[in-house]
Automatic annotation (TrEMBL):
Reaction(s) catalysed (UniProt annotation): tRNA(Lys) + L-lysine + ATP = L-lysyl-tRNA(Lys) + AMP + diphosphate
Residues annotated to bind Mg(2+) 1: 415, 422
Organism: Arthrobacter sulfonylureivorans
Gene: lysS
Keywords: Aminoacyl-tRNA synthetase, ATP-binding, Cytoplasm, Ligase, Magnesium, Metal-binding, Nucleotide-binding, Protein biosynthesis
Molecular function terms from GO: lysine-tRNA ligase activity
Enzyme Commission number(s) of this protein: 6.1.1.6
Family annotation (InterPro entries): Aa-tRNA-synt_II (IPR004364), aa-tRNA-synth_II (IPR006195), aa-tRNA-synth_II/BPL/LPL (IPR045864), Lys-tRNA-ligase_II (IPR002313), Lys-tRNA-ligase_II_N (IPR044136), Lys-tRNA-synth_II_C (IPR018149), NA-bd_OB-fold (IPR012340), NA-bd_OB_tRNA (IPR004365)
Cofactor entry: Mg(2+)
High-level lineage: Bacteria, Bacillati, Actinomycetota, Actinomycetes, Micrococcales
Domain Aminoacyl-transfer RNA synthetases class-II family profile: 189-502
Chief subcellular location: cytoplasm
Protein name: Lysine--tRNA ligase
Free-text comment on the cofactor: Binds 3 Mg(2+) ions per subunit.
């Protein structure tokens, strides 16, 4: 075992050492084959998982035997070869560990010598033997035979030195081997998605799949990835949202519909943004923004319950999901934060002054509506720790939301902010095909003027609305950001295999 005061190896020295170890391990692989032994057999005679052995025999007292013979397998994560008695710790996929003991008396000289000569950290091995408790009370399998299940040619990383964040995300398979937190993230994310599906199914929603390759860039304001379909000699994009196809389904009579899937946006990469990420979009006929607020609150509370807590400790403070989920208007919220009244009629000059005062960078070409949204996002949003529905947006914020039923110059849409970050959004959906055509036409003009995020005019979507869409509400929920909320890590840690720059050299 490495002592705590051993200096961390230099990366170049580690690389050279790893290369040398690979040569040694390749030689051991060759020895196995020379002996007519499979280094990578098609399978082993496993009778129990390590977890099953722990569950069934965890009650054993120190130095107790059972007479029960089991066959177990796992990755060797610790090994100590001491004369006539060898010890190893096996680990299986979920992180469960179990000790294996190999004694000269039980397996014989040849098998024990083979173990010492051929087995390394990282190998998968099969152990057949009796379940016992060691003299120190450690649940173990006392081997009567062993077999190589898979020879590892690369050494495991130096555990005491830890893995760099870059290594963790670039070689996630190594991260999963050595860090309990990495494996737990996989199960946490799966639990979040399962809970969301269960909540929607309980309300009669139907899960569908919509195209990832699309002819028309729409459903959100974002820069798409572009590609080419050779079969049609057609320019295409990867979807930036699932919205427009899901709404087509509602038009066709699927009154409650959702999709959980990957979205692709050709934008920046940072601790909260990834070029590919996972969203939930759901649409419900005869619902509005307030019904959808109830839906998302129920989804998030059910997720919290599935993970065991509704109270989250964060660096910014304690988030209590049991508390009030308040509603905050964009204009009143911004007015309070900057100390002067801002309304839909406030001009661009005043808004630019406010931006300068608060150090917010804005594009001079932005109209007042877009500027207000940017100011709110930079000044107010980071301060909203507790769940807050930010609503009463200007129309430019969401071209697919309907006009407000009571307040001219606003739309019926909200963003849910928790922990100073947007987690989801919802609208009372725009179903008037005439107004929708006007909105998309304006978007197409922006696109023609060089706005790479603006939507294109989607004639087929408009045709669907012209057949008559029922009133509906819709939700967009970022799965990655929801996992971030409950785990307090960056987006790259929540995605199993995030997109990264190619390795250099």
């Amino acid at each position: 075992m490495t002592r705590e005061n051993t200096p961390t190896p230099h990366p170049a020295a580690e690389a050279a050492d790893a290369s040398e170890q690979m040569h040694v391990r390749m030689a051991k692989r060759a020895k196995l084959l020379e002996r007519g032994v499979e280094a990578y057999p098609v399978g082993v005679d496993r009778t129990h998982t390590l977890a099953e052995v722990r569950e069934k025999y965890g009650h054993l007292e120190a130095d107790e035997t059972t007479g029960d013979i089991v066959g177990v397998s796992g990755r060797v994560v610790f090994i100590r070869n001491t004369g006539k008695l060898c010890f190893a710790t096996l680990q299986e996929g979920n992180g469960t560990r179990l000790q294996a003991m190999l004694s000269l008396a039980n397996i014989g000289e040849e098998a024990l010598a083979g173990w010492k000569a051929l087995v390394d950290l990282g190998d998968h091995v099969f152990i057949r033997g009796e379940v016992i408790s060691s003299k120190r009370g450690e649940l173990s399998v006392m081997a009567e035979s062993w077999q190589m299940a898979s020879k590892a040619l690369r050494p495991l990383p130096v555990l005491h030195a830890g893995l760099s964040e870059e290594t963790r995300v670039r070689q996630r398979y190594v991260d999963l081997m050595v860090r309990d937190e990495a494996r737990q993230m996989v199960y946490t994310r799966a639990a979040v998605i399962r809970s969301i599906r269960d909540t929607l199914h309980s309300h009669g929603y139907v899960e569908v799949e919509t195209p990832m390759l699309q002819l028309i860039h729409g459903g959100a304001t974002a820069r798409p990835f572009e590609t080419h379909l050779n079969a049609f000699n057609q320019h295409m994009t990867l979807r930036i949202a699932t919205e427009l196809y899901l709404k087509r389904a509602v038009v066709g009579g699927i009154d409650r519909v959702f999709e959980l899937g990957r979205i692709f946006r050709n934008e920046g990469v940072d601790s909260t943004h990834s070029p590919e990420f996972t969203t939930l979009e759901s649409y419900e006929a005869y619902a509005d923004q307030f019904v959808m607020a109830e839906r998302i609150r129920e989804m998030i509370l059910n997720v919290a319950d599935s993970l065991g807590t509704r109270v989250l400790e964060t660096p910014q403070g304690t988030i209590d999901l049991n508390g009030e989920w308040r509603w905050l208007g964009v204009y009143p919220g911004l007015s309070e934060a900057v100390g002067r009244e801002i309304t839909p009629e406030t001009g661009g000059g005043i808004l630019r002054e406010i931006a300068d005062e608060h150090g917010v960078k804005i594009d001079p070409k932005w109209d007042p509506q877009k500027t207000v949204v940017e100011l709110f996002g930079e000044i107010v949003e980071p301060t909203l720790l507790q769940p807050t529905f930010v609503y009463d947006y200007p129309p430019a914020a969401q071209p697919l939301a309907r006009n407000h039923r009571d307040k001219p110059g606003l739309i019926e849409a909200w963003d849910l902010i928790i922990g100073g970050m947007e987690r989801g959004t919802a609208f009372s959906e725009l179903i008037d095909p005439v107004i929708q055509r006007e909105r998309l036409t304006e978007q197409s003009r922006l696109a023609a003027a060089g706005d790479e995020e603006a939507m294109q005019l989607d004639e087929d979507f408009l045709r669907a609305l012209e057949y008559g869409a029922p009133p509906m509400g819709g939700i967009g929920l970022g799965i990655d950001r929801l996992v971030m909320l409950f785990t307090q890590v960056g987006i790259r840690e929540t995605i199993l295999f995030p997109l990264l720059k190619p390795e250099v050299g």
